[in-house]
C-alpha cells in the first residue's frame, strides 16, 4: 500500500501472513518449546529475544502479536509478556534500582501499588512517591534529583481518574525521566500516549485488547532500544513469557477491537447517564460524563470514554452485596473489558481506601460494561435495584 493503512485495517492485517508450508491465509499456532539449530551454531546469541530459538526468549506467535501492537500504538517495537502485571513489573525491574526514585499514581492497579510501595522499596531500595497524578502540580512537587520514572494509569483503575498525558510528558522530559502510561482502560483505539509524548505504553492484554475473557497477556510499546532492554532483562531473564497459544488468541481478539470499543463506549455512556439520574445512586464516575472532574482532559486525549464505570448506591455494604447478587445478566466477577458485563463491589476495608476520592471511601462498585444491549443492562440494574428496596 502506498499510504499508511488506517487503524482499523492494521487491526486486521498487521502481523498476519500466508503460512509458507500449507498456504493457509492465517498464520498457525506454533506450540513448540524449541527450534532446530543451524548446523553451525557457533555464532548464535542464545539469549536473543528477537530470534526464535527457545520459547522463553520468544515465539513466532509472540513476534506476530508484537508487530501488530507496535503498529496500533505507533511505536517502534513491543514486548508481549504473560500478563499485564508481568509487563508492568518488566518496566519497573528494568528501569528502577537502588537509589532511584519513581513517581506513580496513588490509585492504580493493586499489584503496581504493592510493587512500588512495598516490594521494590523494601527489597531493592527503590524510592517511590505516590501522588494524585490528575494534579500536575503534585507531580512537580514530588520530583527528586534521582527521579528516573513517572508512571501513570489513565483512566485509572478503579477511580476512572484521568491524568494529562501531554503535560506530564513535558515534566518528564524536563527532568530526563522516563514516562510510562498504563493505557489498559483506553486500549490503543481510544488513546495514543506515545503521540502525546509518553516513552512507554503498557497494556493488560487480558482486558480490552483480547476482549473475550479467555487469555491473559501484557505488553509494553516504545522505542526499540528501550523495549530491547525489557525483553532481555525482564523476559529472557525473569521468564514471564507468554504462551504461543495465548498470543494467538489475543491476535484473534484484537481484530475486532475498534468495533468493540465503540460499542463499549456508547453503552457505558448510556448506562452512566441512567445511573447518574437515578436517586438510588450516591455517585457515578465515568470520564464521558460532564460531571467527571477531568472530563475536559479525557475529551482532549481520548476518542471515546471506554467501558468502565465506578459508582455507589446510597446504601451499606450488605445492600451493595445484595444488589450485585440480584443481577441476572451482569456477572459478579473481577476483570474488565470482556464481552460480558462484569461487576464487583469493594467494601471500605480496601488497603488503599485513604487514597481514594472521598465518595469511594464507604465502598464502591466497579462496573465493566460488556457488549450486551444498553437496554438489557439497564433493565437488569432496574430489577436488582427493586429487589433491594429502591
Ligand atoms: C488488569 C489490569 C492490570 C493487570 O493485568 P493482568 O493481565 O491482570 O496482569 C494492569 N493495569 C490495569 C489498569 C488493569 O486493569
Please characterize this protein's 3D structure.
- One of its GO terms (biological process) is transsulfuration.
- It holds the Pfam family Cys_Met_Meta_PP.
- This protein is α/β, with parallel strands linked by helices.
- It folds into two domains: 7-254, Type I PLP-dependent aspartate aminotransferase-like (Major domain) (Aspartate Aminotransferase, domain 2, 3-Layer(aba) Sandwich); 258-387, Aspartate Aminotransferase, domain 1.
- It has helices at residues 7-13, 60-73, 84-95, 110-124, 136-142, 165-175, 187-190, 224-236, 244-253, 257-277, 295-301, 317-326, 374-387, and strands at 77-81, 101-105, 127-131, 147-153, 178-182, 200-204, 218-222, 281-285, 308-313, 331-332, 342-346, 364-368.
- Helix 3 packs parallel to helix 4 (110-124) and helix 3 crosses helix 8.
- The protein is globular, with a radius of gyration of 21 Å.
- The protein starts with 6 loop residues before the first helix and ends with a helix.
- The mean pLDDT is 96.
- The structure holds pyridoxal-5'-phosphate.
- Pyridoxal-5'-phosphate binds at residues 83-85, 109, 153, 157, 182, 184-185, 204, 206-207, 216, 218.
Please outline what is shown here.
The chain contains 13 helices and 12 strands. With 390 residues, it is an alpha/beta fold. It folds into 2 domains: 7-254, 3-Layer(aba) Sandwich (Aspartate Aminotransferase, domain 2), CATH 3.40.640; 258-387, Aspartate Aminotransferase, domain 1.
Amino acid at each position: 500500500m502506498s499510504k499508511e493503512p488506517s487503524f482499523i485495517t492494521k487491526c486486521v492485517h498487521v502481523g498476519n501472513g500466508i503460512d509458507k508450508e500449507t498456504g493457509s491465509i492465517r498464520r498457525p499456532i506454533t506450540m513448540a518449546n524449541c527450534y532446530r539449530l543451524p548446523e553451525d551454531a557457533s555464532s548464535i546469541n542464545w539469549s536473543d529475544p528477537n530470534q526464535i530459538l527457545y520459547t522463553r526468549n520468544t515465539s513466532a506467535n509472540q513476534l506476530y502479536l508484537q508487530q501488530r501492537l507496535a503498529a496500533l500504538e505507533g511505536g517502534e517495537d513491543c514486548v508481549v509478556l504473560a500478563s499485564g502485571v508481568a509487563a508492568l513489573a518488566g518496566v519497573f525491574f528494568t528501569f528502577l534500582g537502588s537509589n532511584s526514585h519513581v513517581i506513580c499514581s496513588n490509585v492504580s492497579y493493586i499489584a503496581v501499588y504493592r510493587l512500588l510501595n512495598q516490594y521494590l522499596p523494601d527489597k531493592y531500595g527503590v524510592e517511590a512517591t505516590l501522588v494524585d497524578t490528575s494534579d500536575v502540580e503534585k507531580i512537580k512537587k514530588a520530583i527528586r534529583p534521582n527521579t528516573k520514572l513517572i508512571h501513570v494509569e489513565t483512566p485509572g483503575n478503579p477511580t476512572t481518574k484521568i491524568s494529562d498525558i501531554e503535560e506530564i510528558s513535558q515534566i518528564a522530559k524536563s527532568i530526563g525521566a522516563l514516562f510510562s502510561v498504563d493505557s489498559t482502560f483506553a486500549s490503543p483505539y481510544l488513546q495514543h500516549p506515545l503521540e502525546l509524548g509518553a516513552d512507554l505504553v503498557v497494556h493488560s492484554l487480558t482486558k480490552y485488547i483480547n476482549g473475550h475473557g479467555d487469555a491473559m497477556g501484557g505488553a509494553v510499546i516504545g522505542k526499540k532500544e528501550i523495549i530491547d532492554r525489557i525483553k532481555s532483562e525482564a523476559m529472557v531473564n525473569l521468564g514471564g513469557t507468554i504462551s504461543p497459544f495465548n498470543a494467538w488468541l489475543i491476535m484473534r481478539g484484537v481484530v475486532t477491537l475498534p468495533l468493540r470499543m465503540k460499542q463499549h463506549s456508547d453503552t457505558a455512556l448510556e448506562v452512566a447517564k441512567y445511573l447518574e439520574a437515578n436517586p438510588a445512586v450516591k455517585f457515578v464516575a465515568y470520564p464521558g460524563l460532564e460531571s467527571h472532574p477531568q472530563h475536559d482532559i479525557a475529551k482532549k486525549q481520548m476518542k471515546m470514554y471506554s467501558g468502565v464505570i465506578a459508582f455507589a448506591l446510597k446504601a451499606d455494604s450488605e445492600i451493595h452485596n445484595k444488589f450485585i447478587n440480584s443481577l441476572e445478566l451482569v456477572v459478579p466477577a473481577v476483570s474488565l473489558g470482556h464481552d460480558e458485563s462484569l461487576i464487583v463491589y469493594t467494601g471500605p476495608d480496601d488497603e488503599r481506601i485513604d487514597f481514594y476520592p472521598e465518595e469511594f471511601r464507604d465502598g464502591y462498585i466497579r462496573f465493566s460494561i460488556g457488549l450486551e444491549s444498553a437496554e438489557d443492562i439497564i433493565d437488569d440494574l432496574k430489577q436488582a435495584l427493586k429487589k433491594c428496596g429502591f
